[in-house]
Automatic annotation (TrEMBL):
Keywords: Glycosyltransferase, Ligase, Magnesium, Manganese, Metal-binding, Phosphoprotein, Pyridine nucleotide biosynthesis, Transferase
Entry's transmembrane regions: none
Organism for this UniProt entry: Glossina morsitans morsitans
Name this protein carries in UniProt: Nicotinate phosphoribosyltransferase
Record note on modification: Transiently phosphorylated on a His residue during the reaction cycle. Phosphorylation strongly increases the affinity for substrates and increases the rate of nicotinate D-ribonucleotide production. Dephosphorylation regenerates the low-affinity form of the enzyme, leading to product release.
Domain Nicotinate phosphoribosyltransferase N-terminal: 29-156
Family recorded in the similarity comment: Belongs to the NAPRTase family.
Molecular function terms from GO: glycosyltransferase activity; metal ion binding; nicotinate phosphoribosyltransferase activity
Function comment: Catalyzes the first step in the biosynthesis of NAD from nicotinic acid, the ATP-dependent synthesis of beta-nicotinate D-ribonucleotide from nicotinate and 5-phospho-D-ribose 1-phosphate. Helps prevent cellular oxidative stress via its role in NAD biosynthesis.
Pathway(s) this gene product operates in, as recorded in its UniProt entry: Cofactor biosynthesis; NAD(+) biosynthesis; nicotinate D-ribonucleotide from nicotinate: step 1/1
E.C. number(s) listed in UniProt: 6.3.4.21
Reaction(s) this enzyme catalyzes, per UniProt: 5-phospho-alpha-D-ribose 1-diphosphate + nicotinate + ATP + H2O = nicotinate beta-D-ribonucleotide + ADP + phosphate + diphosphate
Entry keyword annotation includes Phosphoprotein: yes
Length: 556
C-alpha cells in the first residue's frame, strides 16, 4: 500500500502535511476516464514527450459580476507534489482499460510524476478576468494532459466560492460579521468542507463546520438550534438552576433571578408573561448555566417580541447579577429588519432602565435563507444586525452553481494551437503568453494585457497599444503608472518554487486585490466590464492563425 493510501485510510480523508491540509480524495484517479485513454493513445503514438502548453481560464465571470477571485492554487500544487499512481491505482486501471492495452503502458504510468511540468499561475486570492489564463501548465504532453480535470475541479468551485463570499462581504460591509452555516445544505461532505474553506478565503469570519475549523484553522462559531429550546416544556424540568458568581464564587439561583427579572421586564417591555413560553425560559436558563460567559440564544422559536426577547433579557439580567455578560441573540425567521431594530431598541431600553451598559452592545445574529439581495434590501430598509449566519445560498452558489474554467492546449513543440468555434467567445488564444496588469496613477487596475512570451513587457510611462482580442476597431493606448506581471512560476523541477501563503494571507490578499478594482466594476447592478486586451503583435498572430486554420467553404 502506498504512503498516500496508508495515510488516507488511517487518518481519514485528509492528510496533514504540516502546512494547510490536503484533501486525500485529490489523487490522480480523481479525473475523467478520457484523460487516461488519451494518455494511452499519446503513448502509443510516440507523443508523450511533445512539449505542450495548456492555459486554464474562464470565459465569463460568475453571478452577473465583472470579477472573479482566483482560489485553489495551493491545492493544485499539493496535487502536483503528490502525483503518483499507486499500485492499486495501476491494478484498477489494468482491469478497467480495454483488453489489449499494452503492459508497458502501465509500467510507464507507475513511474509517472509531475516533475517535468512547470506551472505558472497568478497569485491565489487575486482578482482575475475572463480569458486571462489563471494557470499555465507547460511540459510533456502526456502529464500536462493528465492534470486537466483535477486542476479544473480544484480551481472551479474554489474560485466560485471565494468570489461568492467576497460578494457577500462587499454588500454586507466591513463591520458586519459573516458566518458560514452551510454544511448541512452543501453539495456533499467534500463540497461542504471546500465551501467553509473558500468562504473564509473570500472574506467570511468563521464557520460552523467543526472539521473545517480543525483542518484549516478557521475560527469556528455558532449558536444553538430550535431543538434546544423546544426540548424544554416548562421550568419544572430544569435539573440545574444554580450558578456560581463569576468573581465571588457565591452560588446563586439563576432561575429564581430570571423569574424575578421577567416579571419586572414584562412591565418595562409591555408584554404579558402569560403569553411568553416557560419552556423557552427554562431552555435559556439551562443554556446560560452551561455557557455563562458565552450566552447566545435563539429568540424566534415562539414569538420574538412576546416571548424570545423577554426571556432572553430576563436570563441576561440574571447572569449580570452573577457577574457574567451575555453575548446576544439569533433571529431565524420573520422580518429581519424589523425584528433586529426591535431587539436593539429593547436592549437599549433595558440597558437604561436596569443600568447595565453592556446590554447596548449585545450581538444580533440573523439567519434564514439569506442571500446577496436580502442583505442589500436589509441595508436599504435599515437594520441592526451585527452578524449574518449564511448557509444554503452561499455554499450552493444559488445564483450560479458552477464556474466555467477550461483547460486548452495553446502550443505544442513550439507551434501555436488554436481551437476555432462559431462562437467567437470560445476561440482560444493561441501560443504561450504572458499577462500584465496595467495600473493608472490613482492605483486602480486599468486593463489586463496579454502578449506573446517573446515580446518585451510593457513599461511604466511607455505608451502601449491594447487591442480587443477579437474586435478590430476596439483598441486604446495606455500609459501605465504601474505594470504588474501576473505570472509566477509556482512549480518546477518537481518542487514548489514559491513560499506558499497561509489561508489567512490569501484571505487578506483577496481584500487587497479587490481594492485595486474601481467600484463600477464591483457594483451589483450592471457593473462595468473590466478590459482584457492583447498586444498588437498577439492580435495579428491570433488572426493570422485563425485564417490559416479556418476552412474555406465552397459555394455551388
Ligand atoms: N426585512 C426583510 N427584507 C427582505 N427580506 C427579508 C426580510 N426579512 C427576512 N427576509 C427574508 O425573507 C425570507 C423569509 O422566508 P420565509 O417566509 O420562508 O421565512 P419565515 O416565514 O420568516 O420563517 P420560517 O419559515 O423559517 O419560520 C427569508 O429569505 C429571509 O431572509
Ligand atoms: O438558511 P440558511 O442560509 O441555509 O442558514 C442555515 C440555516 O440552517 C438552520 O436551519 P435549519 O436546518 O434548522 O432549518 P430551517 O430553519 O430551514 O427550518 C439555521 O437555523 C438556518 O436557518
Ligand atoms: O450555529 C448556528 O447557529 C447554526 C449552525 C448551522 C446552521 N444553522 C445555524
Ligand atoms: Mg432556517
Amino acid at each position: 500500500m502506498s504512503d498516500r493510501e496508508t495515510r488516507c485510510n488511517a487518518g481519514g480523508q485528509f492528510m496533514d502535511r504540516g502546512r494547510m491540509n490536503q484533501n486525500g480524495v485529490v489523487q490522480p484517479l480523481l479525473t475523467d476516464l478520457y484523460q487516461i485513454t488519451m494518455a494511452y493513445a499519446y503513448w502509443k503514438s510516440g507523443k508523450t514527450d511533445d512539449h505542450s502548453v495548456f492555459d486554464l481560464f474562464f470565459r465569463s465571470n460568475p453571478f452577473h459580476g465583472e470579477f472573479t477571485i482566483f482560489a485553489g492554487l495551493d491545492e493544485c500544487l499539493r496535487f502536483l507534489e503528490s502525483f503518483h499512481y499507486s499500485e492499486s491505482d495501476i491494478e484498477y486501471l489494468r482491469r478497467t482499460l480495454p483488453e489489449g492495452t499494452e503492459n508497458e503502458f502501465f509500467d510507464y504510468l507507475g513511474d509517472l510524476t509531475a516533475k517535468d511540468v512547470t506551472l505558472h499561475a497568478i497569485d491565489e486570492g487575486t482578482v482575475a478576468f475572463p480569458r486571462v489564463p489563471i494557470i499555465k501548465v507547460e511540459g510533456p504532453l502526456i502529464i500536462a494532459q493528465l492534470l486537466e480535470t483535477t486542476l479544473l475541479t480544484l480551481v472551479n468551485y474554489a474560485s466560485l466560492m471565494a468570489t461568492n463570499a467576497a460578494r457577500y462581504r462587499m454588500v454586507a460591509g466591513k463591520h458586519v460579521n459573516l458566518l458560514e452555516f452551510g454544511l448541512r445544505r452543501a453539495q456533499g461532505p467534500d463540497g461542504g468542507l471546500s465551501a467553509s474553506k473558500y468562504s473564509y478565503t473570500g472574506g467570511f469570519d468563521g464557520t460552523s463546520n467543526v472539521l473545517a475549523g480543525k483542518l484549516f484553522n478557521i475560527p469556528v462559531k455558532g449558536t444553538h438550534a430550535h431543538a434546544y429550546i423546544t426540548s424544554f416544556s416548562g421550568i419544572e424540568e430544569l435539573k440545574a438552576r444554580l450558578l456560581k458568581h463569576k468573581l465571588t464564587g457565591v452560588t446563586g439561583d439563576l432561575l429564581e433571578l430570571a423569574i424575578k427579572y421577567r416579571q419586572k421586564l414584562s412591565t418595562v417591555l409591555n408584554v404579558s408573561m402569560e403569553e411568553s413560553s416557560e419552556g423557552e425560559l427554562a431552555a435559556m436558563v439551562s443554556y446560560a448555566i452551561a455557557f455563562p460567559d458565552g450566552f447566545m440564544a435563539l429568540v424566534d422559536t415562539y414569538d420574538v417580541k412576546r416571548s424570545g426577547l423577554l426571556n432572553f433579557c430576563a436570563v441576561a439580567l440574571a447572569l449580570n447579577d452573577l457577574g457574567y455578560q451575555a453575548v446576544g441573540i439569533r433571529i431565524d425567521s420573520g422580518d429581519l429588519a424589523y425584528l433586529s431594530c426591535l431587539a436593539r431598541e429593547t436592549f437599549e431600553r433595558v440597558a437604561e432602565r436596569f443600568k447595565v451598559q453592556w446590554f447596548n452592545k449585545l450581538t444580533i445574529v440573523a439567519s434564514n435563507d439569506i442571500n446577496e439581495e436580502t442583505i442589500l434590501s436589509l441595508n436599504e430598509q435599515g437594520h441592526k444586525i451585527d452578524c449574518f449566519g449564511i448557509g444554503t445560498h452561499l455554499v450552493t452558489c444559488q445564483r450560479q452553481p458552477a464556474l466555467g474554467c477550461v483547460y486548452k492546449l495553446v502550443e505544442i513543440n513550439g507551434q501555436p494551437r488554436i481551437k476555432l468555434s462559431q462562437d467567437v467567445e470560445k476561440v482560444t488564444m493561441p501560443g504561450h503568453k504572458n499577462a500584465y496588469r496595467l495600473y493608472s496613477s490613482d492605483g486602480h487596475a486599468l486593463i489586463d494585457l496579454l502578449q506573446k512570451v517573446s515580446e518585451t513587457p510593457p513599461e511604466v510611462g511607455q505608451k502601449v497599444l491594447c487591442r480587443h482580442p477579437f474586435q478590430e476597431s476596439k483598441r486604446a493606448y495606455v500609459i501605465p503608472s504601474r505594470v504588474e506581471p501576473l505570472y509566477k512560476i509556482y512549480w518546477q523541477n518537481g518542487k514548489i518554487t514559491q513560499k506558499l501563503p497561509t489561508l489567512e494571507l490569501v484571505r487578506e490578499k483577496v481584500q487587497k486585490s479587490l481594492k485595486t478594482l474601481r467600484n463600477d466594476h464591483k457594483r451589483t447592478l450592471n457593473p462595468t466590464p473590466y478590459k482584457v486586451s492583447v498586444s498588437d503583435n498577439l492580435y495579428n498572430f491570433i488572426h493570422d492563425l485563425w485564417l490559416q486554420n479556418a476552412p474555406i467553404g465552397e459555394l455551388s
